[in-house]
């Protein structure tokens, strides 16, 4: 039996085989890219050719809603003392409301044209609600960035709470003057 001399065995065990890592890494990345491109190309071809049936669950489309008819309702300008500590600040605001027509209004117009339309009673209720909300504001709140938008949302909420027969879709300021 032939045996390797112990000196050669020690030299072989101490010299590990060095594999160049950079070319190996590049080869692996390129191989993965080519494999992905090949599989993607085959899948694209098979799916586009119609050879594989694809079951797509379709959600039913929302039923088209009829747009709600609205009309504009302008309130006379409001003059309100603001809740400033000085007590000398006031606000002059003009409001125009976009009001959604209710089925009751439509029926009232068609069946009985002489019926009392929404008018003075509704205007008075809206003005009262607006005065209550505007009177709680301070000039600093109104003049701050986003103050008018915040006030619009407060007014919409107050109109919805206090005037149930009226649906306010939107609110527009036609005048807005803050005096300190």
What are the main properties of this structure?
alpha+beta; 6 helices; 47% helix; 180 residues; four-stranded antiparallel beta sheet; Tetrahydropterin Synthase, Chain A
Note down, in words, how this protein is organized:
With 180 residues, the chain is an alpha+beta fold. It contains six helices and four strands. The protein has helices at residues 6-14, 21-49, 103-111, 120-135, 139-143, 147-162; strands at residues 70-74, 78-81, 90-100, 167-179. Strands 1, 2, 3 and 4 form a four-stranded antiparallel sheet that branches. The longest helix is centred in the N-terminal third of the chain and has 29 residues, at 21-49. Mean pLDDT is 81; it is low at 112-117.
User: Architecture of the largest domain, according to CATH?
Assistant: 2-Layer Sandwich
CA-CA gap between termini:
113 Å
User: What would the principal axes of the Cα set say about the shape?
Assistant: elongated
Count of runs of 4 or more consecutive helical residues: 6
Structural class: alpha+beta
Topology at a glance:
Blueprint: H1 6-14, H2 21-49, E1 70-74, E2 78-81, E3 90-100, H3 103-111, H4 120-135, H5 139-143, H6 147-162, E4 167-179
Antiparallel strand pairs: 1-3, 2-3, 3-4
Can you describe this structure in just a few lines?
This protein has 180 residues and is α+β, with helices and mostly antiparallel strands. It contains six helices and four strands. The protein has two domains: 20-56; 70-179, Tetrahydropterin Synthase, Chain A, CATH 3.30.479.30.
């Amino acid at each position: 039996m032939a045996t390797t001399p112990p000196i050669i065995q020690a030299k072989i065990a101490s010299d590990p085989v060095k594999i160049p890592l950079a070319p190996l890494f590049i080869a692996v990345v390129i191989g993965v890219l080519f494999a992905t491109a090949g599989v993607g190309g085959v899948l694209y071809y098979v799916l586009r050719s119609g050879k594989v049936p694809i079951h797509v669950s379709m959600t039913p489309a929302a039923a088209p809603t009829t747009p709600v008819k609205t009309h504009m309702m302008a309130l006379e300008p409001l003059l309100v003392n603001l809740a400033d500590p000085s007590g000398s600040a006031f606000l002059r605001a003009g409001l125009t409301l976009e009001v959604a027509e209710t089925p009751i209004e439509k029926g009232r117009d068609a069946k009985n044209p002489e019926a009392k339309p929404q008018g003075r009673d509704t205007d008075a209720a809206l003005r009262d609600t607006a005065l209550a909300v505007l009177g709680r504001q301070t000039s600093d709140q109104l003049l701050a960035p986003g103050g008018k938008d915040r006030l619009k949302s407060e007014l919409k909420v107050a109109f919805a709470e206090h005037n149930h027969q009226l649906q306010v879709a939107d609110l527009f300021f036609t005048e807005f003057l803050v005096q300190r």
